[in-house]
Amino acid sequence: MSLLVDSLLYLGIMLILAKLAEEAFSRLNLVRFVGPIIVGVLLGPGVLDLVKINIIISFITSLGIVFLLFLAGAEELGEKLKVESKDYFSFLIELSLPILIISILLLYFKIFSLLLVIPLAMTSAGPLTRLLIDLGISKHKIGLALFYQSVLNEIVAVVLFAIFSKFQILDIISILLVVLFIFLGGGKIAKLLELIEGYVKVREIEFATIISVIFIIGYVAEVFSFNSAITALFLGFLLRDYLKDRPYLIERLRAFTYGFFEPLFFVSIGLYFVKISPTLLLLSLITFLVTIGSKFFAGLISAKIQGIDPVINGLGTSMKGGVDVSLLISALTSNLITPYQYSFSSLAITFSSLVLPLLFRMKFGKPKIQENKINLQQPVLNIIKNQTVVNCYQTLREAIGIINERGYRAIVVVDENFRPLGYVSVSQLLEIDPNDYEILKVCDIYKNEVKILEKKSKVIDVLRVFRETEEPVVVIVDDDGRLLSVVYERELLRYLTPIQ
């Protein structure tokens, strides 16, 4: 009982301090998850030794790794990859060259382990993806090139880590069989989930079924010597299309993961640290410099293959702080690396997570639309000319695809003359059977009345509408009632919050 009571206190302290640290780092325009890591280092044996890792905290944070990687597979790796031969050559350089250089460093210090080298040498697609979205270049040529390279790098590194974590013939065969089973069975799992949906009316059962599948597949993977967290990554990737058609499931998984598991997981990264000493800090700094140096150099070389700016490619393909840390914790909790090895390598990745995004922003610059401060008295058409809408002939599946791609809470519907008819919200789509998404057209369902403003409306007018009505979208029309622009609440907030 004492262990349980102590764990409740520890988890409460960890969660609130983690969220406060995320908020503080966000306001400083730094990578958010670094804040909880620092909180963990301060609370744990690394500095104050106030919070102790025990079996309960370890179990909950290990679940955090599983759900984080599942969402990483579904969202960060969930794009349909259009990989070209140049991407394969590029990522091979960007993974193999750092592995070689980092291996030499660790051999010199007599702390070599491939289970350290691979996480340090790999690129983390998650932090890079979020950075590309922030800068508005995720769909541009350079953004796509960086994304494809990082995803290939991450997937191959994860498989290599899984193989070398066992490195026995029977275990390797088991791992390959599990990977084969996951990829061959991914479609079957989606069909099973769809079949279950046909028999249930309660949305919570669908959510519970997804959670159950993650747990059961993870158990099967562990039985066959495969890491359950890595399995969750692949499972999320294979279920990406299923989840895209069900935005309500994604929203609940995000809240479930990012509201509770993610902050606790990143705090736990710091809790596993050994006592911080000058020697540990020095080794971490050297590892950090060698890691980003080798990855940046590899990115410069591969930029010639990609035909893009060498410095941007070098910085972009050097991003750290996602799956790589998850792999290190998995290795530590499986007693495959020592706490000291874990501590200096995790600290090196933390340094990288802070420095590289700042350098990338400095090199790439701010998005053009955010170069000038927005005057609330200027016409909203001067800053937003967005005509992302759907028409009556499009299916609900097409509407959901646009909503998911843009991150909106609703989508405006127009007629053949481009006059607004209303909007369809995510909450409405939640009440419709996903099997009907291909059948039903947008105008087959009820449309909410959309707030219409004249073309001279100012930014402050739109903000006032959002505040007073809590509507997710407003439309601007010309004198004939034809749509000129759609102003989505989240989009306007991004314009009003410049990236520093």
Q: Any overview of this molecule?
A:
It is a single chain. The chain has 20 helices and 6 strands. With 500 residues, the protein is mostly helical. It has 2 domains: 2-365, Na+/H+ antiporter like fold, CATH 1.20.1530; 380-496, CBS-domain, CATH 3.10.580. The chain has a 3-stranded mixed beta sheet. Helix 1 (2-27) crosses helix 2 (34-43), helix 4 packs across helix 7 and helix 4 (85-108) runs antiparallel to helix 13 (278-306). The termini are far apart. Mean pLDDT is 84; it is low at 366-372.
Defining traits:
500 residues, mainly alpha, Na+/H+ antiporter like fold, CBS-domain, 2 domains, three-stranded mixed beta sheet, globular, sodium, antiport
Topology:
Layout: H1 2-27, H2 34-43, H3 55-76, H4 85-108, H5 114-121, H6 125-134, H7 141-164, H8 169-197, H9 203-223, H10 228-238, H11 240-244, H12 247-271, H13 278-306, H14 310-316, H15 323-333, H16 339-364, E1 389-391, H17 396-406, E2 410-414, E3 420-425, H18 426-430, E4 451-454, H19 459-469, E5 473-477, E6 483-488, H20 489-496
Helix pairs in contact: 1-2, 1-12, 2-12, 3-10, 3-12, 4-5, 4-7, 4-13, 5-7, 5-15, 6-7, 8-9, 8-10, 9-10, 13-14, 13-16, 14-16, 15-16
Average pLDDT, rounded to a whole number, is 84
Q: How many beta strands in the DSSP annotation?
A: 6
Strand order of the largest sheet: 1-2-3
Oligomer: single chain
User: Biggest β-sheet, characterized?
Assistant: 3 strands, mixed
Radius of gyration: 24 Å
* Poorly predicted segments: 366-372
CATH architecture of the largest domain: Up-down Bundle
Strand portion, in percent?
A: 5-15%
CATH class of the largest domain: Mainly Alpha
Outline: globular
Secondary-structure element pattern, one letter each: HHHHHHHHHHHHHHHHEHEEHEHEEH
* Helix proportion: 55-70%
Derived structural class:
mainly alpha
